[in-house]
């Protein structure tokens, strides 16, 4: 079964997949890693993004990536709204650990079932001229179905990285969970900063959702498969580091791709969970230092 | 309530259930009753870790399904009798609870929650890949032709579930009213203070995770006989994860009564709704109720009643 | 008198910050011991290391003749080290009485005999002056009562050593006297007490011996008069 | 550019605990005023009340700038920073997982400060050479003395006219305390600041203070109208050591 070509293909597919995983995980890195908001519903928002893209693509033939970008402002506002509810009802009361988690769990459920009621359990997919084509780079064939999402994901990752590292608001986002009071002493309103950060986190879900439905067909409950993945990536990536998220996503993508090539695709899901448990059990120094 | 009175009550309920099977003939009630009681067990089990100690488990479906598949394997391999299935399912799911707990309960509670969330997906992956239990196609389990004393097998399963529910409630009651339960409550209120007051926090959490997991597995043990055709998608159904957490949260998490009230109310409502409206819609309603309760009535129905009573 | 607590060269770092550097001190059975020092001098870090909430990087801690450096906090409590928290941390969903039952049961003296715990807890509440609040929710107590509850709860663990972490901060001077009276009473029962306090008047009156920390180091130790006359202590507080 | 801060009859505390009982102080343009006393007497609470972090139960706080009076009671710290008052908080409260430079840049968050960010940053790196060396290092990995310098510099980045400093000496070895205090004097002069400094290290604080208050049990026990009055007053030692 084993051949160098197969290995090479698996590696390339893994890297492309990993790039896409980074896009899905960015929202968790922002919300969980930086803000300490355990938004377990993030994958559900990604699926919501997929369906939004599906609707405008199937109805108006809009390019999925354009659709994903176009929905970002709406998702941003949705994120701000969700954060406001979370903040008022849980964070401010100091009740976020148990009930805040359950709140997000309820949101997963509401999104999933609402999509189910509206669109049923059938798989949905999008159409674009380039989906299905393959570009030959030397000996390696890159399916655009994977290549474009990866490229867009990398652009999104880079954009977020620059935003967090180079701008005032970005730095404030990184500072807010470390010491909200100190940030107030600099003249910034922490709740506004968190609004912005959480809004951005959910906005990334819109684009990630568009990429997801480009890679393959989507049904409402598919988001659950991503819960293990995104948290494995956020935790492995060092909680709140965009660079770390990208590296962790690539590692996971490659491992999953190798697993599915050599053991069968149905085993790929077990990889992320294995990694998640491993990281939690070993707790590399610094990861949980706070 | 003393231990002896509790035992008497438990016995009484069981006898009553058996008597019921002599009176009611409509099979639908046994099917529906079984499901509601199954939720009583699941909700009570969830509450032992989630309600008493404040550690959220999102993977109830995984623990339940593991119990069900343990039973299915034992039936297929050796044709083991029901009591053996129940014990084996409890042991296997309990060990799973213990090991997930050992890996993550030292960390902040969210890591346990995340791990359980991923666990269900992965267990499902493993089952899907396991040919012996039929993979994603599922497997049939044939009910024994006849059972002693009972008119038919579903009536028997119903009584078994009554016994399991009574047992789960008894265990929850015992834990709640022992040093273990009081220690867990101290952990929920303030873990660091609890540790400094001599409460072995890690050990108690592990104990709670084990008992909770085991009871969820026990709830799944009779499932192969109940459903007769079992496949991963329905066994790992999100219903179980959502309901086993929504029921205690809606009923009230600090006492054994809350999950019971939540499971009976919500479970019955769902049984009625499944017949009258679509099952997806009624799940949506559960989800919304859950969110509303978490925001508006954090202490659940029991808390609401208690507050009203202390005011009035 | 025998040595009860023996802290040997304990150090603790947080990132770039050396919170404790090789601190040693000994507390004898039944002693009233004061621990003072300017803010940030490492007092709370030291008692966190003693009670087990933090692990020290270097050094050893012995209690009642055995090393406890590696024991988890709950086992140290069971051996007889109890503490109160600077910012009260009651079990808010429980009544005052139930708050006391937790350590009474779990500190290892009365486990599994649930019924025996209550009279003992009531007796402690009586002594500390909280008996009338026994059935009140701990979440709704006033500040002075919360401080008393902290001490009462620590007592219910039947300690040989009680660490009182700023039990008087923010209280009025009448309330300070009330807490002092309680601590004296406990001391009279033979319990060794480490008092950490900023209110000098109280520490000086209460302690038989005082250790002074400054910037993570033990700079002086002695009786109250000695400490007052100690130039290093004056420097630590007044600066140089 | 005159700015003056007057507080009268401040009552403040946390929950049921009343920490301050009718405290009145004033800080005039260009002064360095020391707020003296050992811990737990209310120095921090007073600074927090002035900065809007604790809302006083009674009393008034008025900031006079350029002939305009603004009542600070009820304003949040964000707004008070905007009026040109900055606080170097107790325990420094840096952002440990951001670099030194990022900490500094965040100081200039408000719009007016952002307009001068290059200047102020250049000034801070000039004034604190150690920060220039460690620009790219994480703030949390620095030593206590360096962290205190960074906290001061970060507050300067907000371009304050009035600087409130809470216990700059906390947790520092004596030699470092002395350096930090000297730096505060230097900054005060080069930036024409008005300074209110809470400090328990009496001798260090009186080195640079023009005058000061001794606060005991939430009340002003003694007001020294000059450094001399403070240092020569025999009660000070009594207040400090509880003799």
The number of distinct β-strands of chain D equals 10
Largest interface: A-B, 43 and 41 residues
Report, as a whole number of angstroms, the end-to-end distance of chain D. Answer: 44 Å
The coarse silhouette of chain D is globular
Amount of beta strand of chain D: 25-35%
- Give the domain tally of chain D: 1
Can you put this structure into words, describing what you see?
- The complex is a heterotetramer of chains A (about 290), B (about 300), C (about 240) and D (about 240).
- Chain A is about 75% helix and about 5% strand.
- Chain A is mainly alpha-helical.
- In chain A, helix 1 (about 5-35) packs antiparallel against helix 9 (about 190-215), helix 4 (about 70-90) packs across helix 9 and helix 6 packs across helix 7 (about 170-175).
- Chain A is globular, with a radius of gyration of 19 Å.
- Mean pLDDT of chain A is about 90; it is low at about 285-290.
- Chain B has one domain (about 5-235).
- Chain B is about 75% helix and about 0% strand.
- Chain B is built from 15 helices and 2 strands.
- The mean pLDDT of chain B is about 90.
- With about 240 residues, chain C is an alpha/beta fold.
- Chain C has 2 domains: about 1-80 and about 160-170 and about 185-240, 3-Layer(aba) Sandwich (Rossmann fold), CATH 3.40.50.300; about 90-160, no CATH class.
- Chain C is built from 9 helices and 10 strands.
- Chain C has helices spanning about 45-50, 75-80, 95-105, 115-130, 145-155, 175-190, 200-205, 225-230, 230-240; strands spanning about 5-15, 15-30, 30-35, 60-65, 65, 80-85, 160-165, 190-195, 210-215, 215-220.
- Chain C is globular, with a radius of gyration of 18 Å.
- The mean pLDDT of chain C is about 90.
Write a brief caption for the model.
The complex is a heterotetramer of chains A (290), B (312), C (240) and D (243). Chain B is mainly α and 312 residues long. Chain B has 15 helices and 2 strands.
Task: Name some characteristics of this structure.
heterotetramer; B: 312 residues; mainly alpha; two-stranded antiparallel sheet; 15 helices; 1% strand; C: 240 residues; alpha/beta; Rossmann fold; six-stranded mixed sheet; four-stranded antiparallel sheet; 39% helix; globular
What does the secondary structure layout of this molecule look like, with pairings?
The complex is a heterotetramer of chains A (290), B (312), C (240) and D (243).
Chain A: H1 4-34, H2 42-60, H3 64-70, H4 72-91, H5 96-119, E1 134-137, E2 140-143, H6 144-166, H7 168-176, H8 180-185, H9 190-215, H10 224-236, H11 242-263, H12 268-282
Antiparallel strand pairs in A: 1-2
Chain B: H1 3-23, H2 27-50, H3 60-78, H4 82-104, H5 109-128, E1 139-140, H6 153-176, H7 179-189, H8 191-196, H9 201-220, H10 223-227, E2 229-230, H11 232-235, H12 238-251, H13 257-276, H14 279-296, H15 300-311
Antiparallel strand pairs in B: 1-2
Helix pairs in contact in B: 1-6, 2-6, 2-9, 2-12, 2-13, 3-4, 3-5, 3-9, 3-12, 4-5, 4-9, 7-9, 12-13, 12-14, 12-15, 13-14
Chain C: E1 3-14, E2 17-28, E3 32-36, H1 43-51, E4 58-63, E5 66-67, H2 73-79, E6 81-83, H3 96-106, H4 114-128, H5 143-156, E7 161-165, H6 173-188, E8 192-196, H7 200-206, E9 209-214, E10 217-222, H8 224-229, H9 231-238
Parallel strand pairs in C: 3-8, 3-9, 6-7, 7-8
Antiparallel strand pairs in C: 1-2, 1-4, 4-5, 9-10
Helix pairs in contact in C: 3-4, 3-5, 4-5
